[in-house]
Amino acid sequence: MSEAGTWSGASSGPGTMDTNTSVVISTVLVSFCAFQLLFHFVSHWFSARVSPGFKRLSFEKKIEWNSRVVSTLHSLVVGGFSVYNYFFDEATIRDPLWGDPSLVRLNVAIASGYLISDLLILVLYWRVIGDKYFVIHHCASLFAFHFILRDGKLAYIGNFRLLAELSSPFVNQRWFLEALRYPKFSRANVVNGILMTVVFFVVRIATIPPLYSFMYSTFGTEPYERLGREVQCTWLVSCAVLDVMNIMWMVKISKGCLKVISLLRQEEKPRGSLQNGKLD
Questions:
Q1: Confidence at residue 270, expressed as pLDDT on a 0 to 100 scale
Q2: CB 176, CB 64: distance < 8 Å
Q3: For the chain, how are helix, strand and coil distributed in percent, rounded to 5?
Q4: Residue 156 and residue 153: Cα distance in Å, rounded?
Q5: Can you tell me the distance from the alpha carbon of 167 to that of 144, in angstroms, rounded to the nearest whole number?
Q6: For residue range 222-254, what is the model confidence (pLDDT) as tens digits?
């Protein structure tokens, strides 16, 4: 990230946003409905045809399976869009605090629709997939996103945070393999576990120093002061909450990965005779 001073002259202000409020609201609603449809109907139909093991899962497992299918699709769409915006959205690259947020707002609207949909699913099936940390994560993200959707502020930062979604497909794939009873040391499990650890670190942990370094570089600048205290505090608090959880998850993932690598080195039996186990 560059220093804030290089961007202040490129500020376009919220009044120049191309994406109007009705389009944003429509995108959130369409996203919400699409992910609800995927969870309740499409995932079950599709999974039963591509994975014979899906039919043998319990009702509880099928609920979480469908939830993770939706999560994976959301991550691929939003994560891919975020990568494009990160490299090619010149308006927000020039001015991360106030640059024209049209493309980012569209992506954030899709993500917001998903988060609301997932919160509803968590409430409906709390006994099966309820998780207080996911509720905290979703609510913190939605609260921060509403400033981008409403005012177009901090679009670059919001897009930068959405890059974290690129790790979710690997986390979900780990669960799928476990649910289908793949051997713990199968090639698929080991390769996915290593990729999951590396990608999670790159998009959720390695991004922490440059994010807070940039945040510090903006303090006292004119674009930063124009954000207002509410947005300034939300930027700091929401990022801190999300990053604390990311660090907690990274520690857990790293321990599991190191444990598997250690056991692989000690294992003398052929891979085919290894027993199934859980990577935790």
A1: 55
A2: no
A3: 80, 0, 20
A4: 9
A5: 21
A6: 999 999 999 999 999 999 999 999 999 999 999
